[in-house]
Amino acid sequence: MPPQSDFEPRSTLGIVPPASRKDPTTLTVDTWLEEKQDTDGAEGLWRIHDGIYDLTDFVDKHPGGEEWLSITKGTDITEAFEVHHIKSTPEELLKKYFVRNAKQKRNAPFTFKENGFYKTLKREIVKELPNVPKTTARKSVIIIDSLLVLMFLVSILTVRLWSYALGVVAGVLLGMVTIASHNFIHRKNNFRMYYFNFSLQQVREFRISHILSHHLHTNTIDDLELSLLEPLLEYFPVKKSPLKRYGQVLVIAPLVWLTFFHTPFIKRYIEAWKCKGKNLRITDLTSFLLPLAMYLFGGRSFWDAFWMWNYILVCGALHFGFVGLHAAHHHPDIFHDGDVPRSTTDYDWGISQLDAVMDRKEITASYFLVLTNFGDHCLHHMFPTLDHAVLAHLYPLFKRVLNDFDLDLRMVSQWDTITGGFQQLVKITPNTTPPDLRKYRKDN
Ligand code: HEM
């Protein structure tokens, strides 16, 4: 493993972060992918566990889409490979592309042992899936499509009636559509994933920062969703002045939520100017369908529609930012890199997810809330290609496997994750013991 440099926090998991982690002026999803090539020991090809694979001839044939493989060339895709496939066909196919054993140790301590927690749970899920009614996933489609239509109608009415109150409703609908579209981004390309672009964010960037980084190395120094918030919001338990600790909670956090949609958009276009548009996609144009409809059917000038669209974006960003950052990952009892981990050499990836997630009782109780509030978070992290409506059927089985391994899914209240998020922001002392999952057992 390459030596760790002087980053703060030093990863207690032994992960070497990308070189530009501490430099917000250069850290982007693209520099992260590029710099992973220096730390992952993939020898210019694709690394899975300790094998090097040449997937060049397979990239265009990949049933999940070409993009997943083309953007990850030169990196370690172990976790991505393990969690995005439910059946064993990809493993069989992979053998054909083996080139040699890797020379370097993996830059992460996560393992997927056959009899370990994650692989056992996956095998049980494969057995259970045929019992889930085929029509289950339709529920998600009906909800997201209805929300989308409502969002367009309310946004147009916001301009027609020139109502800032209605703009707040349109913003909340935009936030909900954005969150619900996340259910579709983890799979092979499909048109509903582009609903995400109405928020000015971009599917391609999200697939890197959220899916390939945050989902796989959650709350570690390699989690781009945390690094991209720094130095404004620091969720890792690092040294901070009192001004910074409380300033983050009272002033900076609300400002970050308000600009959650505009900031990545502006950064993307600054980057596009530098790289001659290589980071842009024709599908990004979907972002502008909402303001176009507001202008065409709103009955007011272009600038009026433009102004109201931005107002709706800010309201939607506030909703999305607040919900997203208080959904599941931040609480003093949740593992953040810098805390003492469960293991630095043989850390079952599924257990690392249990350590980095808390689910919320009120949200899990309603499927509408699950889809629009990043619910069923732990199961979704572990099986991201399964529709959220399918995940709802898997809880009895999940609980059984958890019991067999004497593990727990921490179920808390929404209030706990909101207050926990703020407590984590002011926290400066790392936890000296690994997460105690049983602490919340009585609440289940
Ligand atoms: C970065 C690594 C990879 C990612 C993120 C990824 C992602 C995906 C996704 C999202 C799907 C569609 C699943 C769905 O919509 O239900 C898929 C399907 C598939 N992938 Fe991959 N993949 C990766 C690497 C590979 C590799 C290396 C192979 C084999 C050499 C492979 C073989 C397959 C096959 C055979 C399917 C269709 C069958 C199935 O879903 O089990 N993938 N992949």
UniProtKB/TrEMBL annotation:
Q: What is the lineage of its organism?
A: Eukaryota, Metazoa, Ecdysozoa, Arthropoda, Hexapoda
Q: Name one GO molecular function term.
A: heme binding
The UniProt record lists the keyword Amino-acid biosynthesis:
no
Name of the protein this chain belongs to: Cytochrome b5-related protein
Q: Does the keyword Protein biosynthesis apply?
A: no
Species assigned in the record: Exocentrus adspersus
Annotated function: May play a role in muscle cell metabolism.
Checking Gene3D superfamilies in the record gives:
Cytochrome b5-like heme/steroid binding domain
Q: Could you say which protein family the record assigns here?
A: Belongs to the cytochrome b5 family.
State the source organism's domain of life: Eukaryota
Q: Which residues form the signal peptide?
A: none
**TM region positions:** 141-158, 164-185, 249-267, 279-297, 309-328
Boundaries of every Cytochrome b5 heme-binding domain copy:
35-103
InterPro entries this protein is in?
Cyt_B5-like_heme/steroid-bd (IPR001199), Cyt_B5-like_heme/steroid_sf (IPR036400), Cyt_B5_heme-BS (IPR018506), Cytochrome_b5-related (IPR053100), FA_desaturase_dom (IPR005804)
What is an example of a Pfam family matching this protein? Cyt-b5
**GO annotations under biological process?**
lipid metabolic process
Alphabetical list of SMART domains matching this protein: Cyt-b5
Key words of the record: Heme, Iron, Membrane, Metal-binding, Transmembrane, Transmembrane helix
Location of region: Disordered: 1-23
